[in-house]
Amino acid sequence: MTDAAAVLASIPDAVIALDHQGCVRLWSRGARRLFGPEAAEVTGRPLDELRLGWLSVEGGGAHRLLLRRSDGRAFNAVVTATPLTLPGEPDGQVLIVKNLEPWIGPAGDVSEPTEGLDLEERLGATFRAVMEVTGADFDPGESLEELARQLAIQGRRLLPGVECMVAVVPAGRQDSFHCLGAAGPAAERLIGRTYPLEGSIAGRAVAAGSPQESVRMDQEGADPGLLASAGILTLRAVPLLSRQPLPDGRTAVGVLTVLRRQPVHFSSEERRLIDDFGALVSLSIQRAEFRAAADRSMERLQLAIDVALDLAQSLDVQDVVRRLVRRATVGSRADRCVLLRIDGAETVVEDAYDVDGLEDVVGFRQPVGAQQLMSRAVFTRAPVLGGRYDLTSMPSSLRRALESVRHTATLPLSYAGEVVAILVLSRRSDPPFGREEVETLRLLAGPAALALRNSFLYAQTHEAGRVKSDFLDMAAHELRAPLTVIGGYLSMLREEAFGPAPPSWSGPLEALEMKVGELTRLVDDLLTAARLETGRLNSVIETVDLSEVAAQVAEAASEPVELLLPEDPVMVLVDRIQLRRVVEHLVANAIAYRRVDVPPSVRVEVSAVEGTHLRRLAVEDEGRGMPPDLGERAFDRFQRMEDHDEPAVPGTGLGLYIARELTERHGGRLELEWTEPGRGSRFVLYLPAAAGA
C-alpha cells in the first residue's frame, strides 16, 4: 500500500472521487463504513444509481444534507465538495462526507435518551440540546440564570447518578464565584450563594486553567459542610475560560462542577465527557455574556441620545442640572447622584438626587483638593472609581446621607479641556461601579458638559443682560428729568415768558430744540429697549386704522414721504402709540440712510394681503441699501451700518430692534424684504386684522 493509500484508509470520514460524468472512481474505507457497499460494487457506477438519498453539490464548499445508507437508514451529514483536476482528463469532483449523527443524534429523532448511547453519541446528543438551549430567547433580565439552569440540567444527563452546578465569576468581584444554576438536590442548595475562589477547588481550577478533581469533598471546598451533609464526596471542577476578554475585561467566565456521592474518581472517558461539555458550557455562557453586553451597549447609547435630547430642551441651569442628576442615577443604577459646579478652586453643590430621599446641602462649598477622589478626577480628566468620600468636613445632614455609601464613581464634565462640573454617583451596596458603568458615564459626559456649559453661559448672559437693562432703565430715567427741564425752558424762551428774545437767538434756539429732540428720542429708545427686555412695557390695545397712522407719521416726517393708501380703512388691533413708533422708526431709518447729494425718496404703502387675515405696511426707499451679509443682523440691538463712502448717521442702532420687538408683541412680524447697496431697501410690516375688518 502506498503512503497516499495508507493516509486515505486512515481517514474516518467518507472520501469519494467522481469523474466528470458523476461516476465513482474512488471509494474509501470510510465510505464503505458509512454507506455499506464495497468499493468494487460502486466503482464506475453513477453516484445517483446508488440510491443514497444524494443531492448534487455544486460550487464547492460545505453543505449539510440528509443521506441514506445501503440498508435504508437515514443520517445527517456535512458534505464538502472540491474540484478534481487530473492531467489530460476533464475535471471531476472529490466529496468528503462527515457523519453528524454522533453530534446531533439520529436523523428524525432529537429526543433519544442518552443512557443507551456510547460516549461520542452521548456528547453529541448533549451538544444538540445545548444548541437548542443557547438559541432560545429568554427574558433579558433572567437570560443568564435561565441559561445556567438549562445547562446544568443537560450536565446532569451526561452520566448516571451525577449532579451539576454552573457558577459564574461576577464582573465586579473577580475573586469569587456565584452559583447561578444547578440540577440535583445537593447542587440546587448552592444556587444564589457566592464563595471566594481562594481555597476552593473551583479556585484551583481557575488558577491552573485546567480541571481539578477531588474525592474528599467533606474536607475541602467552598462549603464542605453543606456538601457533606448532602452526601457529596466526589467533585470535578472545570474552569470556564475565554481566550478573548469579555467586554468587562474578564477571562475567567465561571466554573462547571459535576458532583456525585460515591468517593470514586471519574474515569478517563467520563472526564473527557465532562471536560468537553465544559467547553460547550463556556461557549454558551460567553455567547450570552456578549449578547447581554451588546444589549447593554445599545442601552447606553440610547441613554446618551436620550440625555442629549432631554438636556437640549432647556437652557435653564436648574432644569438642566435636575434632569442630568436623575438621568445619571437611573442610567448607572446608582443610589445617589450629586452635581457640583467648579467655582475657581472650590466645588459648589448645585443639585442632588437620592433614591432614599435623603437631602443634600445645595450650595455647600468645599475645596477641590479636600477630597482625594475628586481632585484626581479633575487632574486626570477621567472617571475615578473608589469608596466613600471623606466626611470629616461635611455638615451633619450630608454625613447622614453619605455614611452608608460603599462605592463611588466620580466623573469630571469637561468642555474644551476645562472641567466645568463634577458628577459623583454613589452605591450603598455591592456591586461596585465597573467598566460598563464607566463607559455609560463617558457617554453621558460629553452631552452633559455641553449642556451645562451652555446653561451656565446662558445664565451669565441673562444676568448680564438684566444688569445692562437695569442700567439703561436707570440712565434713561436720570436723563429724562434734565431733558424735560431743558425742553421746558426752551419753550418758555420761544414763548417770550422772560421777555422778548433778541432776533440773534432764533438760530441757536432752533438748534437747541433739535438736539433736545434727538436726545429725547435716544432716551426713549433706551428706555423702551430696557422695558422690552425686562417685560415691563405696558400696552393699551385698541382698534386702529393702519392708513391713518401711516399718514400721521408721513406728515410729521422731516422729509417728504409718498403715501399709497387704499380707499377703505385698514383696521388692526394694536397699541396705537407703539404702532406709531414702529412706523416712525421705519420711515426715519429710510430718510437717515439716503445717498449723498440725492434727495430722499421714501414710499409708504398700506394694503391687505389677499387670501389671509394679515394687513401690510411697506416702507421702501432708494437710499444706500445694506450689504447682503448684514441681513437679519439689521434687527439686532445697537446694530449700525458703517459705510466709509457716506457720512455717518447719528443714532443708537436700536430703531429696527425696537420696531421688530414691538411688532412681535402684537402678533405680527417685520421683515427685510430686499436690500441692495446703492439702490435702497424695502421693509414690510405684517399685522393681524382686527375682528370683522
TrEMBL record:
Protein EC: 2.7.13.3
Keywords annotated in UniProt: ATP-binding, Kinase, Membrane, Nucleotide-binding, Phosphoprotein, Transferase, Transmembrane, Transmembrane helix, Two-component regulatory system
Membrane protein topology class: Multi-pass membrane protein
Record domain Histidine kinase: where: 474-691
Stored SMART domains: GAF, HATPase_c, HisKA, PAS
Record SUPFAM superfamilies: ATPase domain of HSP90 chaperone/DNA topoisomerase II/histidine kinase, GAF domain-like, PYP-like sensor domain (PAS domain)
Keyword Cell membrane recorded: no
CDD domains assigned to the protein according to its UniProt record, in alphabetical order: HATPase, HisKA, PAS
Primary subcellular site in the record, as a coarse category: membrane
Domain of life: Bacteria
Record-given protein name: histidine kinase
Domain PAS: 1-45
GO cellular component: membrane
Record GO biological process: phosphorelay signal transduction system
Class in the EC hierarchy, top level: transferase
Catalyzed reactions per annotation: ATP + protein L-histidine = ADP + protein N-phospho-L-histidine
Localization in the cell: Membrane
InterPro entries for this protein: BphY/WalK/GraS-like (IPR050351), GAF (IPR003018), GAF-like_dom_sf (IPR029016), HATPase_C_sf (IPR036890), HATPase_dom (IPR003594), His_kinase_dom (IPR005467), HisK_dim/P_dom (IPR003661), PAS (IPR000014)
Organism name: Candidatus Nephthysia bennettiae
Entry GO MF terms: ATP binding; protein histidine kinase activity
